[in-house]
Amino acid sequence: QICSQHNAEDPSLEQVFHRMAQTETSLDHDVSWFLLPPYWAKMVVALTSFICFANSYDGDFVFDDSEAIINNKDLRAETPLGDLWHHDFWGSKLSSNTSHKSYRPLTVLTFRINYLFAGGFYPVGFHVINIILHCTISVLMVDVFSILLGGLQFSNKGRRLNLAPKTSLLAALLFAVHPVHTECVAGIVGRADLLCALFFLLSFLGYCKAFRENKEGHHFSIFWVLVSVILGAVAMLCKEQGITILGLNAVFDALVINKLNVLELIQKFVHKDKSLENAGLLRKGLLFRITLLMSGGASILYIRWRIMGTGPPAFTEVDNPASFADSLFVRAINYNYYYSLNAWLLLCPWWLCFDWSMGCIPLIKSVSDWRIIALAALWLCLIGLICQALCSEDSHKRRILTLGLGFLIIPFLPASNLFFRVGFVIAERVIYLPSIGYCILFTYGFSLLSKQAKKKKVLAVAVLGILVINVMRCALRSSQWRSEEQLFRSALSVCPLNAKVHYNVGKNLADKGNQSAAIKYYREAVRLNPKYVHAMNNLGNILKERNELREAEELLSLAVQIQPDFAAAWMNLGIVQNSLRRFEEAEQSYWTAIKHRKKYPDCYYNLGRLYADLNRHIDALNAWRNATVLKPEHSLAWNNMIILLDNTGNLAQAEAVGREALGLIPNDHSLMFSLANVLGKSQKYKESEALFLKAIKANPNAASYHGNLAVLYHRWGNLDLAKKHYEVSLKLDPMAPGTKENYNLLRRKLEQLQKKGS
Fold first, then answer.
1. How would you label 9-39 residue by residue, b for 16+ Cβ within 10 Å and e otherwise?
2. Around Cβ 620, how many Cβ atoms within 10 Å?
3. What are phi and psi of 748, to 5 degrees?
4. In the chain, what are the domains?
5. Three-state SS for 296?
6. Given this model, what pLDDT does residue 22 score?
7. How much is the pLDDT for 624?
8. Confidence at residue 714, expressed as pLDDT on a 0 to 100 scale
9. TM segments (predicted)?
């Protein structure tokens, strides 16, 4: 609601504005809630949101954080900054067919800044920024809700008036403590949603500033409208949902600035009423502003499409099974069921899960499925709200309900599967922005109940109880996001049919060395999803390490049969076949893996080992050289080259390769050890000794390091030092091959020398 600016010399004008506001809106009148000054209201919201998620500050990198941060080369200083604008969120080229097309360069830039300031991958700094962002967004929500719930009015000094201080505080608190936000705050990749929300809100507040100098309802600032468009573009560069703010600004302009009655407008349009042109579309520059917004939005989307380069990303059936259903009816029913589940997560955020795919929500395939009730309930509620938003005689009610539905639905549209297929079934992070609409509708419902209730304080205590429960739920859920083990195990009770949950629990156990328990979860993942090739691959790897080679081969063969371009499974199959001494098949499997993944250093390394076993030394050296070209820090490949050249008597070449390797990986003690052995054989004792000692300093408990240094001293004639290091080696590993024999030889020699001396 815009008031025209009057003569600033009238000393009682600001009181007049307050009286006008109070007569126009009654949302706060019957609400029994805290009335705080603006500064204190924002402090309470900030503190409450901080309490909810503070315990996530020292969490690990979990789930998608590994791919988006740890394995993302765009965070490293050696990657040119310009590459961020051509890569997706995960560091892949946008032009690649395997890219997810999630274009969020500004979010990746903040990760890079975090990485540079921390001096490495230390998660604390990443988590702290996420918490600060959510607190900032929650504080901004006080201003946003005061406009959405109370309308937009300015004093004669251009200061915006808060016409709904109590309800805006309640709505901001509801937003700040909503447990569904935990994924965005406690999961570092949720930074994309947080940054998007920040610029989304700034765009909205900037659009509101366009009417600060409004006189007689006709003037507005083009500058602030353009600033709003730019901030919307920035929001989209953080996450794709950000573009929806331009549509919401247009809705806000029509309903609040121009006070359009949508139903009346539709009726006039249908009946071709000549008064349509006077209905408000052309008044107050609405059409011009909407043209600016839509032109800006279209330009942003066109640029985004050009940058993306190719078509939409290729998702698999396990990511979003409903979108692959042949029947349009099945797709529509399941999409609507997903919408109802998202709505339920807003209403009752108790069952939360890091991943809702892979059988977590079985498809509805017939109308006899009882879950159809959820769809009916959702649409009954939506239709009821839409009817009230369009048909109510109370303009204040129409405005709030329409804005609530707008903020609930419009930001959710990019995740709705309506325009393009998305790569998930449900994702809690995508309802961060739609929860604004939920908070508006909840608060408005609370105000209506307060108006009817006789015991308003009891109702207020009930709402306060909901807030306290949500705070506790946020704290609990944040603690679950602190480590992968807790996060994955928390999902077992929510989505026991989700194969990915069992896979991730198994992977976490395998990483910790608990192979027996990991096998159990991998087997369950394969049982739930017989086409889950990644679970087959990991299970095959563990079975291979336990020397259960036949079953490992069966699993890996099935994995490559299901997904013929699965390079990792082809490589692992080659390793198993090599262990079974089926060398030709192993070689073929390795080359198939390289065919599907051109830059595969680990596969070249394993291929080199195969050639070494077959005494094809030149081929082995070439394979390992390829591995080091693709991955210069591939220590195992360098080591094997040095050892093979050493064993075949090519000491000069072995020395050259060793020096080249140490030049690239100067702190690798295994390379120091291998090169020291070569130098010792070349009688470069002093240099060899220095490398042995450096390797021992880096890894003092390696028995072979002490044993080979002892051999060097033995050859060199430093018998006392040789004796000392033989003894250290045998103490560390009494069964060290050759060391005991050499030590006995040394002792006999020392005894002979003592006899001669005596």
1. eeeeeeeebeeebeeebebbeebbbeebeee
2. 21
3. -65, -40
4. 28-308 (no CATH), 321-478 (no CATH), 498-580 (1.25.40.10), 701-757 (no CATH)
5. helix
6. 41
7. 96
8. 86
9. 131-151, 188-208, 220-237, 243-266, 286-305, 372-391, 403-424, 430-449, 458-476
Residue 349 near residue 180 (C-beta atoms within 8 A): yes
CA 614 to CA 160: how far, in whole Å?
81
Query: In order along the chain (758 residues), what is the average pLDDT of each group of 10 residues?
Result: 37 38 58 86 96 94 92 90 89 80 93 92 95 97 94 82 90 97 96 97 94 64 93 96 95 87 73 57 74 93 80 76 89 94 94 88 91 94 93 88 95 91 90 96 92 86 95 95 94 91 94 93 94 95 94 96 95 96 95 94 96 95 96 95 94 95 94 94 92 93 91 87 89 85 85 73
Q: Point out which residues pair with 87 in neighbouring strands.
A: 93
* pLDDT recorded at residue 100: 80
Rounded CA separation 352/344 (Å): 11
| Phi then psi dihedrals of residue 376, to 5 deg | -60, -45
| Residue 24: predicted pLDDT | 47
Interaxial angle between packed helices 123-150 and 191-209, expressed in degrees from 0 to 180 and rounded to the nearest 10? 30
Segment 720-728 long-range contacts (CB within 8 Å, at least 24 positions apart): 722/746, 723/747, 723/750, 728/703
Distance, in Å, from the CA atom of 748 to the CA atom of 471, rounded to the nearest integer, reads 75
Count of CA atoms in the C-beta half-sphere (13 A) of 330? 13
Q: Distance between CA atoms of 467 and 171, rounded to whole angstroms?
A: 11
CB count in 10 Å sphere of residue 584? 9
Q: What is the rounded distance in angstroms from the CA atom of residue 34 to the CA atom of residue 209? A: 27
Buried b or exposed e, range 692-704, using 16+ CB within 10 angstroms = beebbeeeeebbb
Rounded distance between C-alpha atoms, residue 5 and residue 135, angstroms: 34
SS3 154: strand
Give 161's DSSP letter.
Answer: P
Q: Which residues pair with 93 in a beta bridge?
A: 87
Distance (Å, rounded) from C-alpha 122 to C-alpha 319?
Answer: 30
pLDDT at position 10, please? 40
User: What's the token pair of residue 479?
Assistant: 């603690």
Residues for the chain: how many in total?
A: 758
Q: How far is CA 92 from CA 100, 103, 632, 720, in A?
A: 8, 10, 20, 57
CB-based contact 658:671 (threshold 8 Å): yes
- Which residues share a beta bridge with 154? 160
Bridge partners for 160 per DSSP: 154
Answer yes or no: are the C-beta atoms of 6 and 156 closer than 8 Å.
yes
Distance CA 331, CA 329 (A): 5
Residue 154 — φ and ψ, nearest 5°? -125, 150
- How far is C-alpha 616 from the chain's CA centre? 45
HSE, side-chain direction, 13 A CA sphere, residue 232: 29
**How far apart are the C-alpha atoms of 4 and 673, rounded to whole Å?**
82
Query: What is the spatial distance between Cα 568 and Cα 350, in angstroms, rounded to a whole number?
Result: 38
Distance in angstroms (rounded) separating the CA atoms of residues 732 and 634? 28
pLDDT attached to residue 310: 59
Phi and psi angles of residue 232, each rounded to the nearest 5 degrees, phi first: -65, -40
